C-alpha cells in the first residue's frame, strides 16, 4: 500500500502544478494590409490630447451649417474611417495591391476584387520613407434592393472630408458633404 501511495503523491503534485503553467500566448495574425484601425486609433489619441479648435462644415441636400469648436468626440468623428479597415484575414485575397513610387512619394492602392466589399478602393500617400501616410483616400459603395450609397472619404493630418450620395428604392436621395479642418 505504501508503494502505491509513494507514486500517487508525486503524480498528483505533477498534475496540479502542470495545470498552473502559463499557456502559450496566442500569436496575433500578421497584418496583410496597412492597418487603418491602428492608424486612426493613434490619430484619435493624438487629437484627444491636443484638443485642436475645429472648423466643421456640414451640407445636407444643399442646406449647410458651419461651426467652430474644440469639443469633439474623435471616436465618433472618425468612425467612417475606422470602419473602412480592410485588414481582415477573410479578405487576404480580396484586394489587389499596387505600389507606385515617384518624386519622393509612395502611393499604395488597394482595389476590391469582389463587388460585395464595402471598401472599393483605399489609397495611401506617403512622403519619402515615412511610416504613416500623410493622406488617406477611401471609396465605399453599398448596393442592395433597398438603397445605393457611395461615399468618398479623405483624411490628412489636419483635415478630413466626407462626401456621400445615397438613394432609396422609393427615389429619396440624400447628398451629404462634411469638411473639417484644424491646426
List the helices and strands and how they pair.
Blueprint: H1 2-18, H2 36-50, E1 54-60, E2 63-69, H3 74-77, H4 79-82, E3 95-102, E4 105-112, E5 119-127, E6 135-143, E7 147-156, E8 159-168, E9 173-182
Antiparallel strand pairs: 1-2, 1-9, 3-4, 4-5, 5-6, 6-7, 7-8, 8-9
What descriptors fit this protein?
183 residues, disordered N terminus, 9 strands, alpha+beta, nine-stranded antiparallel beta sheet, 4 helices, 22% helix
Number of helices: 4
Strand order of the largest sheet: 2-1-9-8-7-6-5-4-3
Number of strands: 9
The shape, in one word, is globular
Q: Averaged pLDDT, please?
A: 85
Order of H and E elements: HHEEHHEEEEEEE
Distance between the termini: 82 Å
**What percentage of amino acids are in beta strands?**
35-45%
Overall radius of gyration: 25 Å
Largest sheet: 9 strands, antiparallel
Q: What share of the residues lie within helices?
A: 10-25%
Low-confidence segments, given as residue ranges, are 1-5, 7-29
Counting structural domains, the number is 1
Structural class: alpha+beta
Could you explain how this protein is built, in words?
This protein is α+β, with helices and mostly antiparallel strands and 183 residues long. It has one domain (32-182). It has 4 helices and 9 strands. A 9-stranded antiparallel β-sheet has the order 2-1-9-8-7-6-5-4-3, with no helix packed on it. A hairpin with a 2-residue loop joins β7 (147-156) and β8. The chain is globular. The model is unreliable at 1-5 and 7-29 (pLDDT under 50).
